[in-house]
Write a structure and sequence with these properties.
alpha+beta
């Protein structure tokens, strides 16, 4: 037989051999399936019980993992809490002084505006004077001062996240035991840098606040508010309620910095 003949014969017989082998393998598989089907029926009940036990074990494992994670979380929070810097009396008193200065300057301008043109004039003056005073005091003191509210007039006073939660807590109790505006003080650290925050309540008063923020707003005042603040939410307040807060941020010096 020549090499060419042998090659042709191989090409013909190889696929046939492979098919025969596959048929034999499939026959064996069928025999095994028949043989063990009965055994499978017998062990099905045991299999179900095994699955139930496995599921129970997985549930227990997940609970253990959850408890371990909870323990680690509590431990990490405890360590972080012990290591977190605390507000100092000096920073608190400095923040109160900054808030007092802002309030004094703004009330002075608003008082003159009310005398010269009434509430409608005060709305325009407040819109321009309040941010200018805040910027001026921030430049003078090195602090950052702004007003925030749960029901803002200026959209820039809107709060979200943790700040909103703190403001909501302040709204629940806007004055301290002596009747003074309540304070919330905390320190936020980012690496080596830390910032002291003081949030001081702005309490609604009958006069002159009610003219622009109270429950009975005159039509001309309402029109002036709507013209300047289309999305205004800062009306309907009653005396003693939280109208907003002043937020003062004081940067703390890094360790070793003079």
């Amino acid at each position: 037989m020549t090499c060419a003949s042998a090659l042709i014969l191989f090409i013909i017989l190889a696929p046939i051999t492979i098919v025969i082998q596959l048929v034999q393998d499939m026959t064996r598989v069928g025999q095994l399936c028949t043989k063990y089907r009965h055994i499978g029926n017998i062990t099905a009940h045991l299999g179900l019980r095994t699955k139930a036990l496995c599921a129970r074990k997985q549930e227990v494992d997940m609970r253990l993992i959850g408890k371990k994670r909870l323990v680690l979380l509590v431990a990490s929070l405890a360590v972080a809490g012990c290591d977190a810097p605390q507000p100092s009396d000096a920073d608190i008193q400095r923040s109160i002084a900054i808030a007092d200065e802002f309030q004094s300057r703004l009330q002075s301008k608003l008082g003159r505006a009310l005398q010269n043109g009434g509430p409608t004039n005060a709305i325009a003056v407040c819109a321009e004077a309040a941010p200018a005073i805040a910027e001026q005091i921030s430049a003078e003191t090195g602090a950052t001062l702004r007003r925030i509210s749960l029901r803002p007039r200026n959209p820039g006073a809107e709060t979200i996240g943790e700040l909103r939660e703190r403001l909501m807590a302040l709204a629940a109790k806007p004055t301290d035991a002596d009747g003074n505006p309540a304070l919330d003080n905390w320190v936020d650290r980012r690496g080596d840098a830390a910032t002291h925050y003081t949030m001081r309540a702005i309490i609604m008063k009958d006069q002159p606040c009610a003219a622009c923020h109270g429950t009975e707003i005159k039509p001309d005042v309402r029109a002036a508010i709507d013209e300047r603040y289309p999305d205004d939410q800062a009306t309907g307040f009653r005396a003693g309620e939280l109208r907003g807060a002043m937020l003062i941020a004081l940067p703390r010096k890094a360790p070793g910095e003079k």
